[in-house]
Design goal:
3-stranded mixed β-sheet; 3 domains; elongated; alpha+beta; Helix Hairpins; HSP40/DNAj peptide-binding domain; 8 helices; 4-stranded mixed β-sheet; single chain
Length: 297
């Protein structure tokens, strides 16, 4: 069976053109080069792609591989067989050969050097929910790949000052024009840190609010947390477990603020005093309510 493992390493068919092979290697380099992808699996894929490209980009090597498969480079009696003694499997990006030209074109345009193209750069900033209520200032530390004088890719560190606008939501993007790679834009996605009290859905906030059995039964005012400070919440008499109460306009800020919802959670005391136990027993004797009556018991 014909060996096609080198073609598979580049993800191209056996009849791929030289341009197809070059494009495939360029794509693999963008994705798996160890200077831009630190995964061990990525490193292995890049080395396999580089080894495949070293053979398939050379017409004579490729012809030998197509004829002899994995043993293409073994000595043979053919007098006219060219022995290529150049480097094999190296990843130094020597700019004197085709591979170097390709990487100069790719990394030079994207990461530095003459004629570099503007590229948008992407980053993520994680903020506290409270930052979205007041706005905030953040400093991001970014790393950008650049190609040095020897043709190797290195990472440069820079800091960017960022203003978080009031009312921003998770998943929104902030655009800093001209602060991306080579004068492109910097697109920053906003993420929220997990909050111990609030869950966010759109512009609405949800909080689980514990109440005692007597607060749920009798109703009345209890303290309710909000991102801007505690407020009084009116609990209706005979409130139910899981009942949802809304505070209009207390959610995420916007031209029309979101709402804040309290989800009631009835919590029993961890321990009853003798007096409290007597009161519960008196209640049990005077009330005929059976919450299981619909179950037939």
């Amino acid at each position: 069976m014909t060996d096609t493992s080198l073609y598979q390493a580049l993800g191209v068919p056996k009849d791929a053109s030289a341009d197809d092979i070059k494009r495939a290697y360029r794509k693999m380099a963008r994705k798996y080069h160890p200077d831009v992808n630190t995964d061990l699996e990525a490193d292995a894929k890049f080395k396999a792609a580089s080894a495949a490209y070293d053979v398939l980009r050379d017409p004579e090597k490729r012809a030998a591989y197509d004829r002899y498969g994995a043993d293409w480079d073994q000595p043979r009696p053919e007098a006219d067989q060219r022995r290529d003694t150049g480097r094999q499997g190296g990843f130094g990006f020597d700019e004197s050969d085709l591979e170097g030209d390709m990487f100069r074109d790719f990394f030079g345009q994207r990461f530095g050097g003459g004629g570099r193209m503007k590229r948008d750069q992407h980053a993520v900033v994680e903020i506290a929910l409270e930052d979205a209520f007041t706005g905030a200032k953040k400093t991001l530390t970014l790393q950008s790949p650049t190609i040095d004088a020897t043709g190797h890719v290195t990472m440069q560190t820079r800091r960017v000052d960022l203003s978080i606008p009031k009312g921003v939501l998770p998943g929104q993007q902030l655009r800093l024009r001209g602060q991306g790679d080579a004068g492109g834009d910097l697109l920053i996605e906003v993420a929220f840190q997990p909050h111990p009290v609030y869950n966010i859905e759109g512009r609405d906030l949800y909080v689980t609010l514990p109440v005692t059995p007597w607060e749920a039964a009798l109703g009345g005012k209890v303290k309710m947390p909000t991102p801007t400070g505690p407020v009084d919440l009116n609990i209706p008499a005979n409130a139910r477990q899981g009942q949802k109460l809304r505070l209009r306009g207390r959610g995420m800020p916007a031209a029309r603020n979101g709402d804040l919802y309290a989800i009631l959670q009835i919590v029993n005391p961890p321990k009853l005093s003798a007096e409290a136990r007597d009161l519960y027993q008196q209640l049990a004797r005077t009330q005929s309510f059976n919450p299981r009556s619909k179950l037939g018991v």
